[in-house]
Specification:
The structure is a homodimer.
Chain A: H1 9-23, H2 30-36, H3 51-64, H4 75-92, H5 94-102, H6 110-124, H7 128-151, H8 159-171, H9 175-179, H10 181-185, H11 189-208
Helix pairs in contact in A: 1-3, 3-5, 4-5, 4-6, 4-7, 5-7, 6-7, 7-11
The structure holds a DNA duplex.
Chain lengths: 209, 209
Amino acid sequence: MAGRGRLSRDCIVEAAMRLLDREGEKAFSMRKLAADLGVDPMALYHYHANRGALIKDVLQALMETYDVPAPGPDWREDLRKLCNGLRLLARRHPGAFRVYELYEDWIPAEHRVQEAFHATLQRAGFPPQKTVRAVRLLLTYTEAFAVDEITGWLEPFDPTDREAFARSLSDGDFPVMKSLIDEIGRSDTDADFDFGLDVILRGLEAEIS
Amino acid sequence: MAGRGRLSRDCIVEAAMRLLDREGEKAFSMRKLAADLGVDPMALYHYHANRGALIKDVLQALMETYDVPAPGPDWREDLRKLCNGLRLLARRHPGAFRVYELYEDWIPAEHRVQEAFHATLQRAGFPPQKTVRAVRLLLTYTEAFAVDEITGWLEPFDPTDREAFARSLSDGDFPVMKSLIDEIGRSDTDADFDFGLDVILRGLEAEIS
DNA sequence: TTGACTTTTTCTACGGTGTAGAGTAAAAGC
DNA sequence: GCTTTTACTCTACACCGTAGAAAAAGTCAA
């Protein structure tokens, strides 16, 4: 466990992903990662120039685990698979996925995902501009939904939450939400996501028919 | 400029919002805020228990500046106004809006916005569950799009970016994106947003017809 | 005016962060 | 063996949020 040669780019990246997923992005730090690896913090800097470079490698590794589904006969079904693949990724690596969403630069491996989206829409017969716009729409929705999911935003209310929410509604004048409170508190994330995706797909169909 | 009584909850919140918008969330700190106000960092803690409480007040102030548009005869038009109001908010306070998106708790003032969305859909004739789901869809899309907008993700490529992007596409095998590169680089955020919103609205119409 | 009390602001200090730069130990090359 | 390169550690710095004590400034009663 001690001495030379126990570190490597890969094992650091893997440990970082685990730490990120286990404790969340806010709790991640170079020092904790080093502690997990039983190593001095500065040892990490032999493999990555700085925290940002390490994070980038983690995100690259994350996106490489996305496996692009094979295209089928129905482009709508293809898109559903592509989108749900992203949600799956988010659930498997919630910490890393959140960081991915905050990251303000290209991750090379994400091109794979985007290529699949663009190709699917192109095959479906969308013209160039609509292809690009539809991809943006689908990715925006799917990724934002996935973040809400892993953040716990979409968890059903437990009784305590429900009461707190009801109280905060009572402070103002929100009759509609008040009447919908049970519906707002309930939540079936798969069905909720599918609702939104179906709406979008139905709307998209009209663009090429 | 010195002495007692120069601070107040409001002036701290305003200064915090300015600092956030000017320098971005990453550069925000209690110490910089105190420096802006010409005051010892700890003075701020007389008005807010901690950084989190201050941020919450900033977000509350932010959401209070959203003015709910009056409902008109067409629910689709109402929704367009509601959504574009959020984009406007984001552009006016990019720093604060980003923090709002990251914030993992209810901001009382955001109920106002959500009430308006729910009410509009209810008026349009959506049943309870579809109302709630449609609101989630619209807010998810709009807020995520707004974040992309203020983050600069949607900026058109300048020549340097374009070349870097083209090069990163060449490293892998992305024929479709390569053929769409100009379309991807171009960007008219208003039109892009409207495309997505129209798709969603068209899809939603089918839910009540 | 003085003394007591309250409110507001400051000072000092602690444990956390990322990381620069020098130092050390182990492996590799000859 | 010795030298050079590589892998890792140590120390230190500037920044962060903030606890707790001190100090200053304002208020009010006597």
